[in-house]
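Methods: holo model generation. Sequences were used as deposited, without trimming of termini or removal of tags, and paired with ligand SMILES retrieved from the corresponding compound records. Each pair was processed once, and we did not select among multiple samples. The sequence and pyridoxal-5'-phosphate SMILES for this entry were:
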Amino acid sequence: MDGDEFDPSREAAVARDREDPLAALRDRFSLPDDEFYMDGNSLGPLSTDAEESLARVVDEWRELGIRGWTDADPEWFDYGERLGARLAPLLGADDDEVVVTNSTTVNIHTLVGTFLDRLREEGGPTTVLANDLDFPTDHYAIRAQLRQRGLDPDDHLHLVESRDGRTVEEDDVVAALEAEDVGIVFMPSVLYRSGQLLDVERITEAAHEHGAYAGFDLAHSIGAVDHDLSAHGVDFAVWCTYKYLNAGPGSVGGLYVNERHFGTTPALAGWWGNDKETQFDMELTYTPARNAGAWQIGTVHVLSAAPLDGSLDVFAETTIEAVREKSVALTDALIRLVDERLPDCAVGTPRDAARRGGHVAIEHPEAYRVSLALKDRGVVVDFRQPNVVRVCPAPLYTSHADVWDAVEILREIVETEAYAEYEPRGAGVT
Ligand SMILES: Cc1ncc(COP(=O)(O)O)c(C=O)c1O
Ligand SMILES: Nc1ccccc1C(=O)C[C@H](N)C(=O)O
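and the model returned the structure below.
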């Protein structure tokens, strides 16, 4: 972050918005005028485009019934592959390396399982390297896959430990690869709490130098950060589509498999991953598709994939590089405003844009109650244990003025201790 010439005034924020090439896209989203929606890193908002693509499938279901598999436009039979190809430019991948299928967690199961099986065949180490700040579901899935192969997860899941409780040093990932026999490095692109962006290229290179496979959970970067998975030689990746891709609650996830692994038998096989040419021959022998589609399991979830189709029409009006550029500008402004105006809060997100994803972790000892006070005042954010308010100025629908106004509301809550009126945290979704 350059230390110079940031004008913290609201007028300057409005002036930045006037120069914003993405400003018009905001109108595509259903967002109340009196609300600041800063939780798109958890659940993106509805766009008219997503609503239309969902309505289209419902109409086709009504009008075509079973014929929709072949006669719908687009046909449902290869809905997952087609959406995968539409996502490929956001990932720096070839069309057939990407498929929209399953949930992130299921995709971790099948891909970590697949590469553990490969390692066994190759006689490599069946150990997975993750980190101690991961989103829990990643560990649950990895540990379950190890257990299913008779491997003790306490011995076979190794964790890189964070030095500061916020970030993971790539140097420590490399050091772990040097010190231990690792079979699979599985890391997030962006840490869900602090928003740190890890160096996917460096981790992949280091993994390969040490004979390990490199897989990534892109849940917090897809749609906000540009990727170059194929150029970096990443082995596999997974993500969800309900955050920055705005495809709706529980929308279908996605996965990437590098083309050099095509033909590998998926750990969780099912007929939807069979070669499309022979799928309806109903052979009892499974023939994996020669593309990422092989990692599908059962029938494509057309209704919960449909909103993504429309959502990608919004992305098609810009480039992921332009989206990333605006995202960096917004998070930069947010961090500077917190520094300038909120002396009682700390920023838990790296200040170097190259190490930052699309959201900012604002730390305060009363973060939970602060998040409730913010929501009550129309600033939709979330709280993450133990002291983080996550604020996500998602670039497709957030302006610099929104960021300025949200910081002002936060300043007032913190300065007047307005959070004191709220109950401490109990159970439930935060
Ligand atoms: C890094 C990460 N992985 C996975 C998930 C969730 O996976 P799923 O969509 O399977 O619930 C989340 C958020 O819920 C996440 O932040
Ligand atoms: N899928 C959800 C369902 C309900 C509430 C939150 C989520 C999230 O996605 C949380 C998010 N992954 C996080 O980074 O905390």
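The pocket of pyridoxal-5'-phosphate (ligand 1) is lined by residues 103-105, 135, 137-138, 188, 192, 217, 219-220, 240, 253 (CB under 6 Å).
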